User: What shape does this take?
Amino acid sequence: MTQIYNFSAGPAVLPKEVLAQAAAEMLDWHGSGMSVMEMSHRGPEFISIYKAAERDLRELLAVPDNYRILFLQGGGLSQNAVVPLNLLGHKPQPATIDFVHTGSWSGKSIKEAARYANVNVAASSQAEGFHRVPAQSEWKLTPDAAYVHLCTNETIDGVEYDFAPDPAALNGTTVVADMSSHILSRQVDVSRYGVIFGGAQKNIGPAGLTIVIVREDLLGKALPICPSAYDWKIVNDNESMYNTPPTYAIYIAGLVFQWLKRNGGVAAMEQRNIEKAALLYAALDADDFYQNRVAKANRSRMNVPFYLRDESKNEAFLAGAKARGLLQLKGHKSVGGMRASIYNAMPIEGVQALVDYLNEFAGR
Ligand SMILES: *Cc1c(COP(=O)(O)O)cnc(C)c1O
Assistant: This one.
């Protein structure tokens, strides 16, 4: 097989080693005579897989003891409803939720939450084309808001927070962060957040698994209409087995966590990601043949959107990339242009191959 590099935004590239291990274990997991897909989620084999995944994720992100890790279904998008359904029960209705609007994904979150609460856009970079993250000093938070929602890496717009929210300036407001597309790519102080959630298919594993990390005191505040399979307290009381969790996706995620640990954990991954992003942005910035419009401090290390100055060359660019084994570089339909997603599993060789092609196509 020729060398392929897959720059998809998600579902996205997984470590080759993980796929090879899953293939080797496909028909008979550890002598059990069963594929992981065929196991009861309550049996000892799968429980051991689940417990190892939970433990490894907790270690990788240094999740404090007073936080629970939940393995859910429904994707990141479902959490836009599940979060308000879980956090508004103790508030006089209608409650207010604050949002920082930094791009497509936080925009979707605002729309969905408006079905359950008053939404207040505390800060927005929409007028500037979503090219930066408003500093916390610009946020106009509502006193007594149920929480403030952030999307700390905007997958479509390529905008990433370069700071963690400072509790001293939050007046006790709980922070909820959608980290779907950069979880495990950089170190994070979990204690700054009440809830962290993410769909798995960007930086963790297969689609279908959603991870929620929630501070214990936020459990048990669900609205009465919250579906029980999405009630975090019920899910937590049942160790994510209230209903059948996405077992195979949890298994693959667990293999990815082990791969991360073998490769130095999140700190080492962050160093690699800094290098990879620097290499790619330098090629885009070399002259005005390509353009990335995001403020330098907020350029995403994971999702790198860019435009050709001469957009009539877009099709030729993509065809040439494909011929070189550089796949899925077309930008999201809502913003056009190109996008290279360079998640943890993208090796630096893949970024170098893309950079070589960028230079070649620009005639450098
Ligand atoms: C991909 C993504 C989602 C949605 O995930 P689904 O699994 O498709 O529901 C939500 N938020 C962000 C930031 C994403 O990148």
User: Anything to note?
Assistant: The pocket of pyridoxal-5'-phosphate is lined by residues 10, 75-77, 105, 151, 155, 178, 180-181, 199, 202 (CB under 6 Å). The CA atoms of residues 79 and 336 lie 26 Å apart.
